[in-house]
């Protein structure tokens, strides 16, 4: 089956939910400790005990609800806010002097957790609604607003709205990033498909056209139709709708050498010997020089490098002529593998590669440079008219790890 890139999405707000979970547990414990230390100040301690018991049980029982946006539903938020407001309004019943002194309410700073849940779930508008209700409850609990009360209310109101706004911006950025990663993955897949079409279908159509013209008669008509389809397909490939196989034609030997497109293999696939894949490309007019020892590379990377070498040899056959010779040099370094393909043909005229890309002939751009780019390597082409062409392929040792992924 074909290899496909997978876009892994990560929720930027998930850490906020985890932080909120911890905040609710810690502040519930803090509210209980405050009540324990101030137990002698309560005229009706049983009310304080009942309120804090309900708050503690509710906090522990609803931890799953504040673990993510999916579970934090509107009904839960409504009940959670009602618990906070009830705790605030019952404070004067437990402590008659609570309206005289600016002491903490029974829920204390746990109330901010209920407001923050609104902010993370629904953004700044939801945060403004919840914090306004909390502000009104605090003012009612005090009887008349003091400077400290207004200060605390304003602080919660501004902080919750700011966090809600940040969450909305983060969600929009996450959607934009996910879309960009999907577009990038789709573009890379289209380039792979375009390489495959170039390496196989287009070459077959071109061969049918040439052989048909040479044979004449009905074969000539078949060749003409194949040529029309080649032009149409090249136009389609140039537009970006295209997939890679690996094929190279060595006309000097009168045979077609193909590196078979193998099915996907799981990550962590064993390394392969690049020499074993390049050996079939050598022949009477193609010389292979290797280190004399295995050249290990991740198997997917080795197949892609071999396919790029095959594409380079195919260009030698098509553009340098049947009498041209080619040399393949493999160099095995500590951090990279370098493969050089050189020929003694007439070279490439200046500007010819740009013209070929404009005509939809993407052999160098996709089959060679595109493959090495996907591997995190590079492909450099040097050509001097009358002195042949040299293609240098560089692939890092960790090339196989980059295929089939998208980073954050």
From TrEMBL:
The chain crosses the membrane at residues 21-39, 45-63, 75-94, 114-137, 149-167. One of its GO terms (molecular function) is protein dimerization activity. Residues 5-178 form the DUF5931 domain. Residues 189-237 form the Signal transduction histidine kinase subgroup 3 dimerisation and phosphoacceptor domain. GO terms for cellular component: membrane. InterPro entries: DUF5931, HATPase_C_sf, HATPase_dom, Sensor_HK_TwoCompSys, Sig_transdc_His_kin_sub3_dim/P. It holds the Pfam family HisKA_3. PANTHER family: NITRATE/NITRITE SENSOR PROTEIN NARX-RELATED (PTHR24421), OXYGEN SENSOR HISTIDINE KINASE NREB (PTHR24421:SF61). NCBIfam families: HK_morpho_MacS. Keywords: Kinase, Membrane, Transferase, Transmembrane, Transmembrane helix, Two-component regulatory system. Gene3D superfamilies: 1.20.5.1930, Histidine kinase-like ATPase, C-terminal domain. It comes from the Bacteria. Residues 306-397 form the Histidine kinase/HSP90-like ATPase domain. CDD domains: HATPase_UhpB-NarQ-NarX-like. This is Sensor histidine kinase.
